[in-house]
Amino acid sequence: MSDPSLRQTPLATLHLGDRKTSPAHDATVRLAEKIFIAKINLRADPSNRKLMRVFEKVLGFALPLESNTTNGKAVRSALWLGPDEWLITAPSSQEQALFKALSEAAEAHHLAITDVSDARTVFLLSGPNARDVLEKGCGLDLHPRAFQTGCCAQTRLARTGVLLHQTSDEPAYDIHVSWSFAAYLWIWLEDAAAEFNVTIVADDG
Amino acid sequence: MLLIDCPYCGPREEIEFSYGGEAHIERPKQPDKLSDAEWADYLFMRNNPKGPLAERWCHSYGCRRWFNVERHTVTHEIQRVYKMGEPRGGEEGT
Ligand SMILES: [Zn+2]
User: How far apart are CA A126 and CA A168, in angstroms?
Assistant: First the structure.
């Protein structure tokens, strides 16, 4: 775990600070960086019912067992990454406590828990035209008949590996992207959104 | 571009996957007992059928799992997708 006081956003070089505004009423695309989200990777056998119940107790909800789905309560979420792999997200302030709670509760079981908070950053892309922006660089079928609120997918966006998570019907998406690709993807997203009325939002609020 | 049906994530475009060559090639249990020709056969010789070929693919940009695909080498039609460890040629195995 890195020293939280040393953390800085991978978008620091873009100097977005001066351009952040509260969202304009007519903005059809809003773009924000969700700074410093805790992310914990879990590898465990889903057929181990006892262990699944341990996770449910610590998290307050069950790990999603169906592919490409998520589960969550309040500010915590669990995203399906593979048949025996999940990503837990939570506010940065809970990072160390949640990691400790999960590790201790599952101590007797065969599993892997890894803090990967600083491997990726998260963008929030929302608004009526958000899906149009994504569709310029993503091969997934994002139409509501195939991808809805609560769905997640690891895929490619603008040739970069991302973890996509639809968080509302508006629609709104969380886009997890590697630290080193973050500035590139942000610039790509701004360019792809340029034909719409795009606002850079100070905070995901 | 192929549309490959990952057994875990569902249909995704080919660019999300990496190719792993022919499937069901078993490493010899006792390599030191083999002649050079037999070892070379294991290392280098692969089927090159004009027709169905069982091959390995990895969903590199998705779930990162390996699985098997039976693909027709002339039409590129994907005839079957199945998990690692499952026998080739149908659920019953042949
Ligand atoms: Zn997959």
Answer: 9
In CATH, B3-26+46-90 is 3.30.2270.10: yes
- Which residue of A66, A79, A155 is the best one to mutate when testing the B interface, meaning the one whose CB has the most B CBs within 10 A? A155
Range of the domain at A78: 37-115
Chain A nearest-CA distance from B84, in A, is 13
In a domain, A185, yes or no: yes
| A64 and A125 together in one domain | no
Find the CATH number of the domain harbouring A147.
Answer: 3.30.1360.120
* ipTM attached to this prediction: 0.90
Closest CA to A74 of A202, A167, A163, A154: A167
Residue A4 lies in a domain: no
| Per-residue pLDDT in tens (0 to 9) along chain A, 205 residues | 567 778 888 998 888 877 777 666 778 999 999 988 999 999 999 999 999 999 999 999 999 999 999 999 989 999 999 999 999 999 999 999 999 999 999 999 999 999 999 999 999 999 999 999 999 999 999 999 999 999 999 999 999 999 999 999 999 999 999 999 999 999 999 999 999 989 988 654 4
- Give the total number of structural domains in chain A: 2
* B62 interfacial to chain A (CB closer than 8 Å): yes
Integer CA distances (angstroms), A153 to A133, A146, A157, A185, in order = 17, 12, 11, 17
Residue A66: CB atoms within 10 Å:
8
